Amino acid sequence: MQSIIFIGHGSRAPKGTELFVKFISEVIEKVEIPIKEYCFFERYEPNLDQAIESCITKGGTEIIVVPVLLLPGVQTNVEIPEILKKWKQKYPEMKIKFGEPMGNNPIMADLLKERLERKSFSTSGQDAVLLVTHGSHDPQADQEFKRMAEWFSSINQCTVEVAYLTTPPLYKDKAEELLRQSFNKIYVIPYLLFAGVFLESMAESIESNPGIELCDEIGYDGKLKELLIKRIEETKNHPKLEL
């Protein structure tokens, strides 16, 4: 019997967890697969091991795992596959398919454009966009993030740069660098599903600079439901990892 697991990162803030559960519960309602579970990679339960065990207990013989993450990284490239391989060794007859994160696609570009439109971004060339994410030690995550910026820049004919919350270049330093390049205003978009305290901290750190405009984070936008439904079909037919 076919089963599916949606795996989120797991937020430090209870509000982030509540938003994830609400969002993924609405996605699950649209999925026509007999066994449906969600879990968190860290901080909250159920974790991935518990979700897999639940699927097996309910009769699952094929498990489709879809990451609810914006970018690839150590989790999607190493840590989650290691857990899945452990379960495959324990149940060799079970089929396991693991999908890609949301990545670069037209829906993500639309969401970025909407965030800018809310703040009256000008495409005159006098303003620049700065995409900000946590920061990762995985080169693929960094490359994918930069490709997203380059793609968004090309289709909207505007300057788009990247920066990070925890690793260089830090967003505030990068925004001030762009202002020194004679841009009138820098529009900062947190490339995060839930910004929480990060958004508050960012607002505090740049509130004294009128040249920097903080936009809304990506968030659990309704359009992402459509994207996740597509990811299910892609994972069924062309998984990132098949065991």
From TrEMBL:
This is Sirohydrochlorin chelatase. Gene3D superfamilies: 3.40.50.1400. Keywords: Lyase, Metal-binding. It comes from Cytobacillus spartinae. Pfam families: CbiX.
